Amino acid sequence: MSDPDPSVSSPVAGLPAYLAAFATGGLLTLMVLFNGQLAAHGTPLFSSWSAHGTGTIAALFLLALLRPAQRHPGIRPPIWAYLGGASGAVTVMLTSVTVNTGLALSGTLALGLAGQVVFGLIADRWGLFGLPRRRPTPRDFAALALICGGSLILIFLGRS
Q1: pLDDT tens column, 5-30
Q2: Residue 136: which residues within 8 A CB-CB, separation 6 or more?
Q3: CB atoms within 10 A of CB 10
Q4: Which of 16, 63, 127, 152 is the most buried (most CB within 10 A)?
Q5: CA distance 24 to 40
Q6: Torsion, Cα of 111, 116, 117, 120 (10° steps)
Q7: Would you say the pTM of this structure is higher than 0.85?
Q8: pLDDT tens across 63-117, in order?
Q9: Three-class HEC string of the chain
Q10: How far apart are alpha carbons 1 and 6 in whole angstroms?
Q11: In this structure, are residues 56 and 105 in contact, taking their beta carbons and an 8 Å threshold?
Q12: Where does residue 149 fall: left (phi above 0), alpha (psi -120 to 50 degrees), or beta otherwise?
């Protein structure tokens, strides 16, 4: 693992990366819960529009407040890099539906985590989207097996 670039400013500078990554899990849980409530009282599309509308307002506010420096001035990202919003919109709609089923919040998040790890291993293996290629190790597959096993326990044995 490489050390982070010290020249890059970050809103969480000084906060260990592991803690920041862990905190995103809690925030993701709140996002899925809140969006599920919106979808239960409206539609998944309404939930997605609401989430992205408030997210846009929050991001604009933080941009104005923090005024982050550009990492690489004059260098534009590839056009596909802007598709994060589209995948986010679909993610919000899908989780807004599944959180209101028998999967509930924990099952939705557990299967979502499994899907993230599977796609992450695939993206690493083939170097998708400019990532460096990395061959998955037995440890990676063991971690995936534990995540899938835990997901199954939450879904099938966690019911009352």
Answers
A1: 544 455 556 678 889 889 999 999 99
A2: 121, 124, 125
A3: 13
A4: 152
A5: 24
A6: 160
A7: no
A8: 999 988 888 888 888 999 989 999 999 999 999 999 999 999 999 999 999 999 9
A9: CCCCCCCCCCCCCCCCHHHHHHHHHHHHHHHHHHHHHHHHCCCHHHHHHHHHHHHHHHHHHHHHHHCCCCCCCCCCCCHHHHHHHHHHHHHHHHHHHHCCCCCHHHHHHHHHHHHHHHHHHHHHHHCHHHCCCCCCCHHHHHHHHHHHHHHHHHHHHCCC
A10: 15
A11: no
A12: alpha
Residue 151 corresponds to which amino acid? S
Q: Are 14 and 73 in contact (CB under 8 A)?
A: no
Provide Rg for the chain, Cα atoms. Answer: 18
What are 30's two structure tokens?
């709140």
The residue count for the chain: 160
Q: Look at the block and give the residue holding tokens 């061959």.
A: 135
The two structure tokens encoding residue 40: 């239960």
Q: Go through 107-136 and write b for each residue having 16 or more CB atoms within 10 A of its CB, e for each that does not.
A: bbbbbbbbeeeeeebeebeeeeeeeeeeee
CA distances from residue 35 to 61, 76, 86, 112, 151 in whole angstroms, order as listed: 21, 32, 16, 15, 21
